[in-house]
Design a protein that fits this description.
Layout lengths: L7 H23 L5 H17 L11 H16 L5 H26 L3 E4 L2 E4 L3 H25 L4 E8 L2 E10 L14 E4 L1 H6 L7 H4 L2 H11 L5 E8 L2 E9 L2 E4 L2 E2 L4 E5 L11 E4 L1
Length: 283
């Protein structure tokens, strides 16, 4: 059997890039707020696990049990294990299966030569093509999500926010492209116009200018109402990034049913050009 040379740096870069693209695809599909460092750490772990297969005594990592352990480790790093993260794990597994099917299909179409070793079949597929295919999966996902979001863009729900004895009712847009999340806990965040906070806390006399200075607003809230659970949420939109003041509400009711999301960020700018809705929730 002819010997082959394996370049560990290439193995690490190719597998890390593929894992990063597939993880990003799963994150986009679930609309989760996974922090960027988790994506990069997960991709780095995947690349390192691929390299470990070629080290003495670690060849078993390339078999099914070892591959399963690598998958679990990657998901733990990227998605964590608390709450409803099992859905992200499942989506990532489905994305990986779809990617594997695409690779096999391309190998058949391009008639890429294969060889057998230790009862397993390998294809002489270049690293560049693998990364390109992973990028195609992510790009197709983004394209479909954008189209799907446009079709669902007019789907409105009834939203009720409760804080103490006060409540705020409004129409909300369900948006699959809304991935805003608390960077500390990963908890999804709904976005509401600033007037909602003014109605929930009328005794503070809140104004739009105060929401344009979220750090200063948090200091005032901490002084006036020490019991409030307030925090800053970083956000990024097209050409814009900054911070939003947010509150942990007592209850959030969507279409008459309580939902687990209770963290609301307040926007000093209008969310709807036509005034058709006053909040945005994750789809």
């Amino acid at each position: 059997m002819r010997a082959s040379t394996v370049y560990i740096d290439e193995v690490f870069l190719v597998n890390g890039a593929v894992d990063l693209l597939l993880l990003k695809t799963a994150v986009d599909l679930t609309g989760s707020g996974t922090r960027p460092w988790r994506l990069w750490a997960g991709a780095g772990f995947g690349g390192a696990a691929a390299c470990a297969v070629y080290l003495p005594g670690l060849g078993w990592l390339g078999r099914l049990p070892g591959a399963g352990l690598s998958f679990l480790g990657l998901c733990l790093i990227c998605f964590g294990w608390r709450g409803r993260t099992w859905k992200r794990w499942l989506w990532f597994f489905c994305v990986c299966c779809g990617f594997a099917g695409l690779v096999l299909a391309v190998c058949g179409l391009l008639r890429i030569p294969a060889f057998s070793r230790s009862g397993r079949v390998f294809y002489r597929l270049s690293g560049r093509l693998l990364v390109l295919l992973a990028g195609a999966v992510w790009g197709l996902c983004r394209l479909l999500l954008d189209r799907f979001a446009r079709h669902r863009g007019r789907e409105l729900v009834r939203l009720e926010l409760k804080l103490g004895e006060r409540s705020f009712r409004c129409a909300a847009l369900r948006d699959t492209g809304n991935t805003l999340a608390d960077p500390t806990t990963g908890e999804p965040v709904l976005v509401v116009r600033w007037q909602a906070a003014a109605r929930l806390l009328p005794e503070l006399g809140l104004t739009k200018a105060q929401f344009e200075d979220p750090a200063g607003l948090l200091l005032r809230l901490g002084t006036a109402r020490p019991g409030l659970r307030a925090r800053l949420i970083p956000f990024r939109a097209v050409g814009v990034e900054g911070l939003l003041a947010a509150l942990v509400l007592d209850r959030v009711i969507e279409d008459g049913k309580p939902v687990p999301t209770r963290l609301a960020a307040f926007s000093p700018t209008e969310l709807s050009d036509g005034g058709g809705y006053e909040a945005i929730v994750q789809g």
